[in-house]
């Protein structure tokens, strides 16, 4: 009787977690689709990874979370050891991948900075060209909102235009063809460093979000293994 009660308790906890995961996945997927529909012209700034936009990342993440949550729900309802173990393994792989990415990011920060700036500068040459309206809009929004110009300096645009000129989004006061005026009318701050500083200033919020995500994943792993062990014990007891 006690074993049955334990199984029911574990089942309830794990089922709630799985349902929560599915709802979270639906929410992430919904936001991604909304961004794709409403902000379809806003794409990545990277020339090497043109599909790596916020909308696409959210859609892929939301889909994976929904699939994993669905596997967990079915495994809990059916008390299926295979599905429960599959849920545990998938969640563990994702957790280890995230941990590896974080470690590599801190170890190779300088190299990542160098590569990112080089890639962004390559992307500048696609600004205003056919088929790259997403990248064009992205740079215009970044420069306008962060009051910056170019990747490391406004002179980055000189290589793009082959003349002393910047996009109009670099201007202190926007007007048509204001990018043809003197440098005194342009933003001087480099966009890469400006955005990097903004991220550092909001590092606490990013850290809290990452910590909460890690805790949720650890809870999921704990619930999954607890449920799996309870089912195995029940099968052994019944046998």
> What order do the SSEs take from the amino end to the carboxyl end, as H and E?
HHHHHHHH
Which segments are poorly predicted (pLDDT under 50) over 5 or more consecutive residues? 1-9
Class per helix and strand makeup: mainly alpha
Provide the residue-averaged pLDDT. 79
Main pleated-sheet profile: none
What characteristics describe this protein?
about 240 residues; 8 helices; about 70% helix; disordered N terminus
Could you characterize what this model shows?
With 239 residues, this protein is mainly α. It has 8 helices and no strands. The longest helix is centred in the first third of the chain and has 37 residues, at 2-38. The radius of gyration is 24 Å and the shape is elongated. 23% of the residues are buried.
Quick take:
This protein has helices at 2-38, 54-78, 81-107, 109-124, 133-146, 156-161, 191-201, 203-238. It is mainly α and 239 residues long.
List the helices and strands and how they pair.
Layout: H1 2-38, H2 54-78, H3 81-107, H4 109-124, H5 133-146, H6 156-161, H7 191-201, H8 203-238
């Amino acid at each position: 009787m006690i074993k049955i009660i334990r199984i029911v308790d574990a089942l309830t906890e794990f089922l709630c977690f799985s349902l929560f995961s599915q709802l979270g996945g639906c929410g992430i997927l919904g936001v991604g689709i909304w961004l794709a529909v409403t902000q379809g012209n806003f794409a990545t700034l990277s020339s090497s990874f043109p599909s790596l936009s916020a909308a696409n990342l959210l859609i892929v993440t939301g889909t994976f979370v929904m699939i994993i949550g669905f596997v967990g729900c079915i495994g809990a309802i059916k008390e299926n050891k295979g599905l429960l173990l599959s849920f545990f393994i998938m969640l563990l792989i994702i957790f280890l991948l995230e941990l590896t990415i974080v470690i590599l990011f801190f170890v190779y920060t300088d190299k990542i900075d160098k590569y990112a700036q080089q890639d962004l500068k390559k992307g500048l040459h696609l600004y205003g060209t056919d088929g790259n309206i997403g990248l064009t809009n992205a740079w215009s929004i970044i420069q306008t909102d962060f009051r910056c110009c170019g990747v490391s300096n406004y002179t980055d645009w000189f290589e793009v235009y082959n003349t002393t000129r910047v996009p109009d989004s670099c201007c202190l006061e926007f007007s048509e063809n204001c990018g043809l005026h003197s440098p005194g009318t342009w933003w001087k701050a480099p966009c890469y460093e400006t955005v990097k500083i903004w991220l550092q200033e909001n590092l606490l919020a990013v850290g809290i979000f990452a910590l909460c995500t890690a805790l949720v994943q650890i809870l999921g792993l704990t619930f999954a293994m607890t449920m799996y062990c309870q089912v195995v014990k029940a099968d052994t007891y019944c046998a």
